[in-house]
Amino acid sequence: MKVFVTGGAGYVGSHAVRALCDAGHDVVVLDNLSKGHEQAVDGRARLVVGELADVELLDRELIGGGFDGVMHFAALADVNESVRCPGLYYENNVVNSVRLLAAMERAEITRLVFSSTCATYGEPEACPITEDMRQQPINPYGRTKLAMEWAMRDAVDAWGLGATALRYFNASGAAADGSIGEDHTPETHLIPIVLQVALEQRDGVKIFGTDYPTPDGTCVRDYIHVDDLASAHVLAIESQKPSTFRSYNVGTGRGTSVREIIEAARTVTGHPIPAEEAPRRAGDPPKLFADPTKIQSELGWSPVHMDIESTVAAAWRWHSAHPHGFSPASQEAAP
Known about the structure:
Strand 5 (111-117), helix 5 and strand 6 (162-168) form a beta-alpha-beta unit. Strands 3-2-1-4-5-6-11 form a seven-stranded parallel beta sheet, with helices on both faces. Strands 12-9-14 form a three-stranded mixed beta sheet. It is globular and about 55 Å long. It contains eleven helices and 14 strands. It has helices at residues 11-22, 55-62, 79-84, 86-107, 140-159, 190-198, 226-239, 258-269, 293-299, 308-321, 328-333, and strands spanning 2-6, 26-31, 46-49, 69-72, 111-117, 162-168, 170-172, 205-208, 220-221, 223-225, 244-250, 256-257, 275-278, 287-288. By secondary structure, the protein is of the alpha/beta class.
């Protein structure tokens, strides 16, 4: 199969590209490298540096390119930024995605796997979260992802697109060999922030809210290993049929609290990792974790990495070997 991957130089995208290549597929990556990194792209894939908004580029690559399907990761994903700059998120995550759908229609490509998010559920009334629960996002980021799911559903009816929305929870960890991992600037995800404390790049970590109705009072989230996410994408694109819309939660089905993440990082790194208690942040639900039954039964997918310490250890291998991410200074420091 030949697959076009937008945002394939980013964190989840680069792991999916590697998984596609390992499965024997031919891969072309489109990325503007504003958030992604050229070094993260598997050498077996062809990288095209360009913008999703460039319609001529999309047509040049897709029409007559012999592609069987598209994986779409290219999106902005900072919730706080989306609140400050909603127009930026609607332009990039919705308008540019609709341009991609139009280019796929012109190229007669009918397989699409879309990087969606559990943020489309907003603050669910119950956990674990199932795919049939109401989607009522509470921020522009989640609303732009849901808008793209609507556009995909309409394209299914209009011209026979076959599409899967993978709604994932907290992507975490790194490749088993430590060669690719998470590198965001600024960093907003808990595990890399905690590991930056262990690397003495931060003084400590803040725990936002300690009075939630959870076992230890801190927020609980579902941390899904990035390699497990990648395998779900490969299964989804390989099984996709035309004129069909599917949605799947991709998570472990288990919740891990903020305090448990910090303790796991202390165990893995041997660093004390100072933590400071702080007030709750607005809009943080107490619990968010998936019910992955549907994807397990329909695609035969199950997460391999269920132990949070092993996921943190995988992330630690990446961050300790690449303390500056994919920058040249990091490469010189790597063993």
